[in-house]
Amino acid sequence: MSTATALPDSVTAPASASNAILGTYKRQPALFVRGEGVRLFDDSGKSYLDMVAGIAVVSLGHGDAGVARVIQETLTSGLIHTSNLYRTAAGERLAAWFVQHSFASQVFFCNSGAEANEAAFKFARRWGRAQGNDNKFGIVSLRGAFHGRLPGTLAATDRASYRQPFLPLMGGVQIVERDLEELRAVLDPDTTAALILEPIQGEGGVRVLDPDFVREVRTLTRERNVLLILDEIQCGLGRTGHLFAYEGLGVVPDMVTLAKPMANGLPIGAVLVNEPVAGAMQPGDHGTTFGGGPLVAAVAEHVVQRLADPVLLEHVLETGCWLSAELNALMKRTGKIRAIRGMGFMWGLDTHEPAAAIVGRAYDRGLLLVGAGEHTLRLLPPLVMTRDELSEAIALLESALLDN
Ligand SMILES: *Cc1c(COP(=O)(O)O)cnc(C)c1O
Predict the structure, then answer these.
(1) 57 lines ligand 1 (CB under 6 A)
(2) 8 Å CB contact between 372 and 205
(3) Does the beta carbon of 148 lie inside 6 Å of ligand 1?
(4) In terms of residue numbers, what domain contains 398?
(5) What is the mean pLDDT of residues 59-68?
(6) Ligand 1 site, residue 109, Cβ cutoff 6 A
(7) Are residues 190 and 274 in the same domain?
(8) Nearest CA to ligand 1 atom 7
(9) How far is the C-alpha of 281 from the C-alpha of 279, rounded, in Å?
(10) Closest ligand 1 atom number to CA of residue 153
């Protein structure tokens, strides 16, 4: 796992392997066998510049030596899993780190982003009931939202094709326009427990919420005694150039959900909660067998400290501004891009052509991109990517856009 790790001979999958995995994804044909920094390598030795980072997960890049060291040290202890029936040190230290570096008074660990949001919905309902009102369980989310594909989070996700085949979803969830008047009409002190929103909508096309809007929403949710949950599963932990996206918005939320980059690829999620929410929770209210176990927590403790490094955050902020200018120049040069949205290391490019066609041509040229909706390309590079590497990616993207 360090950059020079030799691979076992057996990494080549049997030809039939792809048919044995349930067909919930359309995958690119490459079989990746190795990662190094901002590049992945397939079994033919072809290299790909990675502007996806495992969907905003591998922020420190592939084959990171520090991550590998922590994994190895943890393995040496022989302690990978004990369950949450017992105390282990790494999870306690990780939780303390979050309490020290955020608004949170306590933290719940789980295994994924969707699980973090499902947990946040349960915590909100527990808190709602604790207000002495059995009807205070409503969850509100916004137009364009993506919060996950489990029954509760799918109910809060605004994509008909994801939802329709699985109705009915969890009840008591309503999706409303990104509009203050509409929220004024919907948020009810007696029936709404929480509003959830992404500071930057990811799957919804990289839509950066206006900080003024979010601040007014914060004021409104306080007036209505409604919790504000920020889903920072994609945009959190450095991707905006702030450790937490909410810092850039100038609001203090009641809960924040995190996952993707927390352990640079090992599965872990978290819900940061403030004191009132924490105070409403009792033993038995929620659970997880694996959540926050010694291995993932130790790796996450290492990763979050590095993502919080002011030098890295400054790099993301400055390079993000530079990237904005470069992408705007690309738009002018090619005439193939209709609009650009984003900040830091999270960008969406609206294209005339279907995004999938451009993703395919980029892939042929050794550049990994992902779409966000039919006509939006998404750029989610590892946060350690340099200007030279980003310039290389932009040149490949230009070639893919122009198909020359
Ligand atoms: C990825 C993501 C989720 C859900 O994550 P899963 O990997 O499906 O568990 C939720 N919210 C946002 C904003 C995300 O980016």
Answers:
(1) no
(2) yes
(3) yes
(4) 17-63+310-402
(5) 98
(6) no
(7) yes
(8) 113
(9) 6
(10) 10
Q: What is the pLDDT of residue 19?
A: 85
Q: Is 146 in the pocket of ligand 1 (CB under 6 A)?
A: yes
In a domain, 2, yes or no: no
**How many domains, the chain?**
2
The answer to whether residues 323 and 268 belong to one domain is: no
Return d(Cα 101, Cα 79) in angstroms, integer. 27
Residues 225, 103 share a domain: yes
Q: Band the pLDDT of 315: cuts 50, 70, 90.
A: very high
Is 4 domain-assigned? no
What is the DSSP secondary-structure string of 256-310?
EEE-TTTTBTB--EEEEE-HHHHHH--TTSS--SSTT-HHHHHHHHHHHHHHT-H
Query: Is 362 found in the same domain as 298?
Result: no
Written as six digits, the tokens of 89 are 């040190």
Nearest ligand 1 atom to alpha carbon 232: 13
Instruction: Point out the ligand 1 atom lying closest to the alpha carbon of residue 55.
Output: 1
Residues 244 and 392 in one domain: no
Same domain, 286 and 147: yes
What is the model's pLDDT at position 7?
47
Cβ of 112 less than 6 Å from ligand 1 = yes
Q: Which numbered atom of ligand 1 lies nearest the CA of 149? A: 8
Find out whether the beta carbon of 118 lies less than 6 Å from any atom of ligand 1: no
* pTM of the full structure: 0.95
Q: If you take atom 15 of ligand 1, which residue's CA is the nearest one?
A: 234
Confidence bin at 404 (pLDDT 50/70/90): confident
**pLDDT given for residue 17 in this prediction:** 58
Rama region for 335: left / alpha / beta (φ>0; ψ in -120 to 50; rest)? left
Q: Which atom of ligand 1 is nearest to the CA of 234?
A: 15
Quick check: CB of 158 below 6 Å from ligand 1?
Answer: no
Q: pLDDT tens for residues 9-50?
A: 444 555 555 689 999 999 999 999 999 999 999 999 999 999
Tokens of 134: 């059995």
